[in-house]
Every structure is written in C-alpha cells, then in structure tokens.
Give the backbone structure.
Amino acid sequence: MLNKYSLGLLIATGIYATTSQAAYLTESYADNSVITSAQFIDDIYFTSGYDADINTESGINISTSSLHASVLASGDNTVDFYGFNGIAGQAYFDIDYAMDFGGSFDSWMQLYDASFNLLATNDDSSIESGSVHSYDSFISYNLTSNDVYYVAVGSYPSLGDIPFGANYTLQISQQVSPVPVPAAVWLFGSGLLALAGFMRRKQNV
C-alpha cells in the first residue's frame, strides 16, 4: 500500500536529481605525454557541486550552474594531455595552484578538437578566475559541438615540459542550460496521486 511518505518520496525521486559535491581526481600513472594517449576524464567526474575555484574570466562563480571536473596533477618532465566529452557551448579551462606553490612553474595550456586541431592557447591570465597568480593559464572557449576535446598542460614557453614534482590543478567547466522536467515525469506523478486517491476512497467504502 502506498502511504503519503512513500508516494511523496517516489514523486520527488522521479522529478529531482540530487546535486553532487565537488570532487577531484588525480592524474593517472599512465603515460599521458602525447595527445594520442591522453588521460580521459570520464563523464562521472563532472559535477555541479560547489567549488570556490570554478569561475568565469570575470571571477563569477559558476560551479553550481556548470558541469566541472578537477584534476590534481604533478609534473614529470613531460607535457600532460587530457581528453573529455565536451558539450556544445561555453567552456572554461583553468590552471590553479601552479605558480607560487610546491614545485612552482609558469604554466602554458592549449585546447584541441577531436581531430587534434589547435583551437586556443594561453600562457598567462591577468584576470581573476580562481587562480592565485597571473601566471596560471586560463582559456575561455565556445565549443561548437558535442564531441571529444583535448587539453594540453605544459610550461612556458610554447608548451614546454612541466618540471618534475611541479604541482597544479586543472579545472574544466562547461556551462549547461537547466534541463526541463519531461512532461512524462509530471504525468507519472499525477498518475500516482490519482492512484493514491482511488485507494483512499476504496478504503473508506
């Protein structure tokens, strides 16, 4: 028998998705020093949990209105490549905690499409974007299609090798439009409410 609590819980579960907490993953031990063997950031690592470091180029926090993933990484005298499934629309790529932190280095970042064509590059960011130093790289780019994209992280100049032991955090965030609740879900909820009313009337007969 459906009671009021279980009915409400079932409807709420069908209509609302819970918001994940911000999570960080670490750079893998596999060789990701060339784009063809880039470390792939799975969709499950993208979250809309609050993170103070997920910001636009003007410093506006978008962590709860975007899907973002964060990678904790450390240099090994190579360039690091990462792949991910991009969503068409505005995306931000941010290097945090590279300069003036453990193993400090001047970062250089590049963005590529699925065919390895260079889309954007950045050395220094002079804007507030969650970074603590202007030498931390930042790219703002409008992705034209849902596809695989690649991010390369290296050092100044021109995507040089990251010094051994130099730490950094790579932030990838993609702004997404709110997803409307499908009409079928509302109809499902209405049907459950009608069923509960029918059962209540039947009990009173």
Remarks:
- The domain at 19-178 is CATH 2.60.120.380 (Jelly Rolls).
- DSSP finds two helices and ten strands in the chain.
- The longest strand covers residues 66-74.
- The chain has one domain: 19-178.
